[in-house]
Amino acid sequence: MIRREVKNKLDYYQQNSDYKTRDIINDKEQHIFPVDSSLRIWYNELNVDYPSHWHNALEIIVPIENYYDVEVDSHPYRVKPGEIIIIPPRKPHSLHAPRTGCRYVCLFDIDFFSSLRGYSSLINMLQNCIHITPESHAPIYNEVYDLFSSIWDEYFQKTEFYEFSIYSHLFQIMTTLSRYHLTKINLFTDSTPIKRHEYFEKLNNAIDYIDQNYAYDITLEEVAAYSGFSMFHFSRLFKEYMNCTFYDYLVGQRIKATEVLLAKNGLSITDIALQSGFSSISTFNRTFKQKKGCTPSEYRALFSGAPNKHKRTPVREKKTQ
Length: 321
Description:
Elements: E1 21-25, E2 28-30, E3 39-44, E4 50-53, E5 58-65, E6 68-72, E7 75-79, E8 84-87, E9 93-96, E10 102-108, H1 119-125, E11 130-132, H2 141-157, H3 162-182, H4 186-189, H5 193-213, H6 220-227, H7 231-242, H8 246-264, H9 269-275, H10 281-292, H11 296-303, E12 315-316
């Protein structure tokens, strides 16, 4: 089934009349949102390509007429009308438009979600791009698509409290996707409802503990005991739930912490390594390069946001984006 959007009398252009130009520094797109908002939605009809770039926003694209080509981390996706693609924050991606067509491009700041329980599980689900089609997500496709339809209707009508309404729909979409994701994990499908709830609570307790203590010398044995599982049982359940080992997740949280600190330019790389839980600067340098493909110093130069006359590329566009 292909969903076709029936054009109504929405004003697609007035809502984004504040937008003047794209501003990209070191491949990072800056100033995405209006000054008083944490979201922006485009009705995009341009046959313009967007070279590889990244930003802090969650990006969701829904073609309405004709396909749209998206490349995320060098992986190509052809998104057809009625399909939905979700690009995680801070993921390098490029966009390639056909000669004709239109699509909704939705950008959301979701960093404030991090204060909510279950955020780490959500971000783990969003580690890679999610391509939603009527076939791949059949049980939930109609619900998710209808929620998106409500989101852009709210945005372009600019009704009272529309941002509250939009984020409530986005929360529902993420909840639906997360629960659907759980149905694909044997840990939950092969257990009774009571046991599933017990596993879910204990594993999320363990994840919260790691998130709060990654900077310390915590161990697998310590976190397993905290969660109430044996070390062997915890290792197996954690890997099935998070699709990575305990140690991979722990190191990942430490690396994420260093990314934030490196971008701020306020600390030495040695201080950043030690504050984030790495035992030595050599371990940090080696691990960071394995995970990110560059040294911490190179990352700081690329992603700190410091102006670089060779990397700043403002692009002027029509107000449809």
